[in-house]
Amino acid sequence: MLDASPFRSALTDAQSRVEAALEAGLPRPTGPEAPIAHAMRYATMGGGKRLRAFMVIETAKLFDVDPAGADRVAAAIECLHAYSLIHDDLPCMDDDDLRRGQPTVHIKWDEATAVLAGDALQTCAFALLADPATHDSAEVRVRLVASLAQAAGQHGMVGGQAADIAAETATTPATLADIEHIQSLKTGALIRWSAEAGAMLGQADAAQTRALTAYATALGLAFQIKDDLLDVEGDADAAGKRLRKDEAAGKATFVSLLGVEEARARALALAEEARSALAPFGAAADTLRDAATYIVTRQT
């Protein structure tokens, strides 16, 4: 069982390490800016699976990267991810009032605080990456900053979100290819970056980087398919958020287009594809292989 595996220990370790890095890296709630700092910490320190942080830390281990630098990069991707969730929950987006079983930021404070806290978390992510404490090489730090900007922006997560919104009001129904493209940007871009970050920190060769990109590309798609399955089959209390939104809105998803059983089979096949991509790393990548299994068998 994965619960008793080295993967579970590695995930727990990554969660502890990134929490410590976030505690050190996030601004303290003092002075007139305290409400924003409180909201940033509330959104970022509120738990979560920390899979993106885990992927940074575990891929960095493949190249014997300094753990302190890897932890800062893991904190950066969690700040970026938290910003995206704050904004995704706003009334102008998904209009959600629960996240991880707690009120969303705009519900606990207000919409202006949520927007500003998200903006500040985004800039905090890049500040963490650019700091010399992250890596001795300025070239490596620039690569991390530039690649995360690409993964998070118009040609990555933000572009995917925009395409997802457009698909909801399009005159023609979204196809499976449309959904795969949208999710490769909206969800997949940051997951790919999380795996590639370890290679950047370790100054890996092109073949090693390609292997991690292939792994994370398959993993990101499997992750989204599993999310779509959980939206249909999951338990809202366990998930800590509202479910069955997509079905209620008539939104095209992997489940609506493929059906439950075919979507599940596709996720399992992608997990196997991800595991196979790690062949160049041998047993050193076993925890990353187990992560693929976890992603398609998780219940939240």
From TrEMBL:
This is Geranylgeranyl diphosphate synthase. Keywords: Carotenoid biosynthesis, Chlorophyll biosynthesis, Isoprene biosynthesis, Magnesium, Metal-binding, Photosynthesis, Transferase. GO terms for biological process: carotenoid biosynthetic process; chlorophyll biosynthetic process; photosynthesis. Catalyzes the condensation of farnesyl diphosphate (FPP) and isopentenyl diphosphate (IPP) to yield geranylgeranyl diphosphate (GGPP) needed for biosynthesis of carotenoids and diterpenes. It comes from Rubricella aquisinus. One of its GO terms (cellular component) is cytoplasm. It is an enzyme of class 2 (transferase). Pfam families: polyprenyl_synt (PF00348). Its EC number is 2.5.1.29. It catalyses: isopentenyl diphosphate + (2E,6E)-farnesyl diphosphate = (2E,6E,10E)-geranylgeranyl diphosphate + diphosphate. Its cofactor is Mg(2+). The keyword Magnesium applies. Belongs to the FPP/GGPP synthase family. GO terms for molecular function: geranylgeranyl diphosphate synthase activity; metal ion binding. InterPro entries: Isoprenoid_synthase_dom_sf, Polyprenyl_synt, Polyprenyl_synt_CS, Prenyl_diphosphate_synthase. Pathway: Isoprenoid biosynthesis; geranylgeranyl diphosphate biosynthesis; geranylgeranyl diphosphate from farnesyl diphosphate and isopentenyl diphosphate: step 1/1.
